[in-house]
């Protein structure tokens, strides 16, 4: 039989109590019919009027009704709980009742999360549903918040043990009964109060888990500066508590609704930005600032992130925490998996001990190394996420300085082989319902989070050279010296005491695992993004040669051409990386031509480029820019590459450039522009800017007009391009936009970008470089409003 509908709607106020006698029925015209009780309670829960709590029934009636409905005695227990939880109670009897209620709900919740739901289907109404319907949730909130009430100047107190029972019951009810978590989230004073319960180690884990669930459904982000004594609270956490607290921080410092950020239209983002500017800093930004103001906060996170397994919590305290986790159902499956690993290793060790005639110890006293490792991995996941978000926030430079000072990068480098990119054991932890290669696996998630952190750390920041060791920094200097070019200033300014130690730096280690990654691996995208971020910014010949000498270009071409990669995300990341690696670099084009040494290979490469210009346009842009620079250089080496390289010869043809230009403009529209595809607009502008330099801009516009006519849609392309350029002006000329990215990626001054756009948008139909000169009057449509449709 199906379970009852889940409870939902707003809860009643904490002070609401109806009379605890049969007289309470008078308002509803006498004693209700048994069949209507749950319906009336449900209506009362939604409206706040009528039947809302167990105290409105007599114990005799509830006992009689329970025989028919199999409510497990929960309403009667709630009736007793009301009677024993008044303000002047000593709460001893109250705690005993809670201990009776708790197992009735916890077994049901355990069955619920492990998908063994037959247990919950034996009765018409699950215990958690009945508990909530008869007012149990609101009563426990009242009991927990008793310490906020003062009687004669003295605040009431309840024991940690009782708080723990209340939290456990509330969490189990949230797990099984839809709507309860949302109702709790609406009680802002209760949510803030929960933070104060984390001061006790006895209730910390239960409180943290409940807060995490509540914040996950809360419509408005909580402000950490409203939490009483936040700095003192966090500073007093031990490292284990701080790592668990990061699970909560992950919800409070990330901008809401940022999933699939690249898919949100720029129109919507710009509108949101304007709104945000008028409202001031967001709650997430306020929360980030609040955390960064806590003395030693970032330093402690760095220590957690770089802590070795041997330095982590001892066996006794870890086993105690595992027992705590067993109570908390979001970790129950983790515990189950960990204990399975423990038993496997114990059986293995026991067999070995018997063969050798040695005594063996139980897994309860001998903590397997795999459990220690998984424990540390799950901590580091949360810590790395928080650091990554802080690195992308408003205080980025401040966080960068602290992360460098506290040696996060060399610490992660030392953990790379043994923890972050360790080899999977035969008994590697796999969560219930998942497999070892699933992105939800802690091992997989840690790797992705690590790569995201590297990407954020390296992106357009001179601290990226901390990813190298001293020997590798010397290699960069030698490359510059040999090429007779100035050393990169950021390399000269790098504090050598903060770089990686050991034989290889973190970037080199990443390249090694990247080249060994299987073709179908989900890591390829993130690895390419992390390495590309190292190259992003002002083009550095030394940086490019450092990576070229390690076979990166050949690896990328193998993946694009020989493995014929099908993943669009991976292809886009590889094309972007290839573009940054080859831009303006003659040696890179020579290596490209050496690898793509047959027409067959070159055709496969072109097929991959042309299959999706959204993915490959950054490479097209880099090759176009490189061609322009090479054609203006007088150098035998450059001349040789120009005469031999298939790719440069292909891009140099005007029909090829026009084909790219036509498709780049055609695949985007103002209403569909996103952070992901706006690069198509900028690549089309690069092609036209270079044409303008050669005084060929009118020719290119005339050819676009002819291509329109050949498609039997005169005006459709140029009208669209006109609208895109108008949007470009609104978007990039806004005072808060950073134009240096466009300058760095193209080596074309931003003033030239602006001038070219202005020339193209010139309303004078007599101008040979104005778009309107090539749109016939009947097809003119250039004044559309940019509104989100």
From TrEMBL:
Residues 345-364 are annotated as: Disordered. It comes from the Eukaryota. One of its GO terms (cellular component) is Cul4A-RING E3 ubiquitin ligase complex. One of its GO terms (molecular function) is phosphatase binding. PANTHER family: SHORT TRANSIENT RECEPTOR POTENTIAL CHANNEL 4-ASSOCIATED PROTEIN, TRANSIENT RECEPTOR POTENTIAL CHANNEL 4-ASSOCIATED PROTEIN TCPC4AP. Pfam families: DUF3689 (PF12463). InterPro entries: ARM-type_fold, TRPC4AP. This is Short transient receptor potential channel 4-associated protein isoform X5. One of its GO terms (biological process) is ubiquitin-dependent protein catabolic process. It comes from Physeter macrocephalus (Sperm whale). The gene is TRPC4AP. Keywords: Receptor.
